[in-house]
C-alpha cells in the first residue's frame, strides 16, 4: 500500500540530486566540449562554491535569505574568476596539452583542497535555507468502497527542495539560450568545431577558453550553493560530485550538453529511487556498471558523435 508514496518521495529526492548534478556535469561537459580539457579540479570548484556560500552567509547575517541570495551571485562569480585565472596562468602556458592538463588540474585540485583545509578547517558547517516550509504530499487510495485522497499520509518535502529543482532547470535553460542564441555562444561553438579555423577568422580563442573554463567552474559553484542548505559545506565534499559528473558526461557523451542533462536526470532519479528501496551503495555500483557498458559498446556516449 505504501509503495506509491515511497516512490513519489524517492523520485522527488532523486530529482533534487539530478538538478544539482546536471549543473555540475554541464559545466564539466562544456569545458571538455570547447577546450578538450579534462578538468580533474572540477569537484574542488564545486566545494569552493559551498565554502564561499558559508562565508557569505556568516558575514551578512540577518535573515537567511539575504545571505543565500548574495551567495548565489558572489560564489559563482568568485569561483569563475579563480578558474579563469587558473586557465590563463596554468593551462594556457602548457598549451592545453591533454596529458599535461590532467596533471595540472590534479595539482590544482590538491592546492585548492589544502588551502581550504588551512583556512576553513576540517569541520562540516551548515548553511541555513532561505525558506523551509514543508509541503504535504497527498496520496489517493481506496477507503472501504470509496476512492479518495489520503492527506497527510506522513511524508512531505520542503519547499526549498522544490526550489532547487526549478532553479537548476531555469539555469540550464539559460545555458542553452546562451549557447544557441548569443554571440558568445556562437564564438564557443565555432571554437569547439575548429580551433584553427576560429583563429583564422580572428576569434580570440584563448579568451574564449578562459571564459568557458570560468563558466564551467561557476556552474559547479552554483550547484553547490543550491545544495549546501540541504547538505553541509566541507573541504572534501567535491569528491563525489566529481565522480558522478564524470559518470554523467561519459554516459551522455563528452561535450554533448543535451546528453549530459538527460544522463544527469537518469543517474539522479535512479540514485534516489534505488537508495530508498535498496541501498545507496547499489545505486553507485549500477551507475559504474552502466559507464563500463557504455565505454565498451558506445565509447562516444549515448548522445556523442564518433570522431574520425
List keywords for this structure.
single chain; 308 residues; mainly alpha; ABC transporter involved in vitamin B12 uptake, BtuC; two-stranded antiparallel ribbon; two-stranded antiparallel sheet; 4 strands; 71% helix; amino-acid transport
The CATH architecture would be Orthogonal Bundle
What percent of residues are in strands? 5-15%
Structural Rg: 21 Å
Number of strands: 4
CATH fold field value: ABC transporter involved in vitamin B12 uptake, BtuC
- Give the overall average pLDDT: 87
- The coarse overall form would be globular
Assign the structural class, choosing from mainly alpha, mainly beta, alpha/beta, alpha+beta, or little secondary structure: mainly alpha
| Tally of individual helices | 11
What does this structure look like?
The protein is mainly alpha-helical and 308 residues long. It has one domain (3-297): ABC transporter involved in vitamin B12 uptake, BtuC. The chain is 71% helix and 5% strand. It contains eleven helices and four strands. The chain has helices at residues 3-35, 42-60, 64-91, 98-120, 159-181, 183-193, 195-200, 205-227, 239-252, 257-277, 280-297; strands at 134-136, 139-143, 146-150, 156-158. A two-stranded antiparallel sheet has the order 1-4. Strands 2-3 form a two-stranded antiparallel sheet. Helix 1 packs antiparallel against helix 8 (205-227) and helix 5 (159-181) crosses helix 6. The termini are far apart.
Amino acid at each position: 500500500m505504501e509503495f506509491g508514496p515511497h516512490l513519489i518521495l524517492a523520485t522527488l529526492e532523486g530529482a533534487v540530486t539530478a538538478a544539482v548534478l546536471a549543473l555540475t556535469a554541464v559545466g564539466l561537459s562544456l569545458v571538455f566540449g570547447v577546450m578538450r580539457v579534462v578538468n580533474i579540479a572540477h569537484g574542488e570548484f564545486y566545494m569552493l562554491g559551498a565554502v564561499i556560500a558559508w562565508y557569505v552567509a556568516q558575514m551578512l547575517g540577518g535573515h537567511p535569505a539575504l545571505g543565500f541570495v548574495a551567495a548565489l551571485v558572489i560564489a559563482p562569480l568568485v569561483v569563475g574568476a579563480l578558474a579563469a585565472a587558473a586557465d590563463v596562468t596554468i593551462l594556457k602556458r602548457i598549451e592545453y596539452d591533454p596529458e599535461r592538463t590532467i596533471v595540472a588540474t590534479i595539482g590544482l585540485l590538491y592546492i585548492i583542497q589544502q588551502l581550504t583545509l588551512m583556512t576553513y578547517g576540517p569541520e562540516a558547517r551548515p548553511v541555513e535555507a532561505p525558506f523551509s516550509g514543508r509541503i504535504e504530499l497527498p496520496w489517493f487510495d481506496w477507503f472501504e468502497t470509496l476512492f479518495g485522497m489520503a492527506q497527510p499520509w506522513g511524508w512531505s518535502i520542503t519547499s526549498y527542495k522544490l526550489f532547487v529543482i526549478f532553479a537548476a532547470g531555469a539555469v540550464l535553460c539559460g545555458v542553452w539560450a546562451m549557447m544557441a542564441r548569443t554571440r558568445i555562444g556562437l564564438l564557443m561553438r565555432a571554437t569547439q568545431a575548429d580551433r584553427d579555423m576560429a583563429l583564422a577568422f580572428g576569434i580570440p580563442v584563448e579568451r574564449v577558453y578562459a571564459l568557458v573554463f570560468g563558466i564551467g567552474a561557476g556552474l559547479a559553484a552554483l550547484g553547490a550553493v543550491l545544495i549546501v542548505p540541504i547538505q553541509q559545506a566541507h573541504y572534501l565534499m567535491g569528491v563525489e560530485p566529481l565522480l558522478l559528473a564524470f559518470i554523467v558526461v561519459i554516459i551522455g557523451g563528452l561535450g554533448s550538453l543535451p546528453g549530459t542533462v538527460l544522463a544527469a536526470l537518469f543517474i539522479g532519479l535512479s540514485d534516489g529511487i534505488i537508495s530508498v528501496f535498496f541501498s545507496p551503495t547499489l545505486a553507485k555500483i549500477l551507475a559504474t556498471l552502466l559507464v563500463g557498458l557504455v565505454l565498451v559498446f558506445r565509447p562516444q556516449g549515448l548522445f556523442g558523435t564518433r570522431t574520425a
